[in-house]
Amino acid sequence: MRSPRGRVLLVPVLLCVSGLLAIRPTAAEGEPGDGSDSRISAQVARLYEDAAVATQRYEAGRREAETQRGQARSAEELLTRERREIAVLREDLGRIARAQYRGGGGLPVVAQLLLAGSPDKLMRGQHVFSQANLAVDNAIGKNRRAEARLAADEAKAVEAWQAVERRARELARLKKDIDDKLEQARWQLQGRADASVAAGSCRGAVRLDQPPTHFVGDWVTPVETYALSAAYGSGGTRWANRHTGQDFAVPIGTPVRAVGAGRVVRVSCGGAFGIEVVVRHSDGYCTQYAHLAAVTVDQGDKVTTGQWIGQSGTSGNSTGPHLHFEVRVTPDAGSALDPVPWLAARGAPVG
Asked: What is the pTM assigned to this prediction?
């Protein structure tokens, strides 16, 4: 189950398709300290924003296509009714023609004159004949107009549908292009994280442009959109005892937020938690963010509610990309408590 929480981070909604397609290629690997870590992290963050914009445009195109489908179905129903009306008109034309023939309408005028018996009877017959011809002409004209309108409507429907299909294909290609680049950048970022964990030494914070945030409360969930996985207290072969936190299943590179204001008391790279950040809050509690791919803060930094403090990953003892989140009484392991009710009590429910 996916649960968006907190305020949606603002994204550059004015990006155009050409701008999205012009994303710079992934930065090449470099030596520690040459800025390549920052470039990779920044690229992942930017691609997340681009992917969000592309998804919005794709969904808008999909909704447009659904609207066009509904209009096409309505048009087809109307055209079906018109075809039925045309069929009825043709039946009427047939009956009129047969009635004319039986009533002498098919005879030459000279023959009708000889058989009429009187001029008045002939004139009445000719009047009826003329009225019938007028009815036939009107019916034929109505039929032709209906068929012309039908053909025009069909052509418009086909043209509109083809345009929607073209747009949908363009948006799908755009989205796939960005998703592919994002996936490549994610694993490059994770590769750098794995190297740091193997060396047991952090490469230092990468500084990312923080998005504008306007939160209603003083507390938020550690990631904006997620699926819950392993819960606090759950058992399994992956842990020596019970699970000490709440796992949030998110892709590599997802921005990780400080759940509340505080100060960073630990940034470490190594061990079971891989790359981790620990923040102490004003009420004395500490929160831990583990298995990261990158950190954006240094020990001693002050952080605000919702500030990006890292990017999720799968470093350390991890079976897949996720954020391991703990609430602790002290900064150290062994003092954890269930983070879900702790967050809920502070107005940041997890679900």
From this structure: 0.62
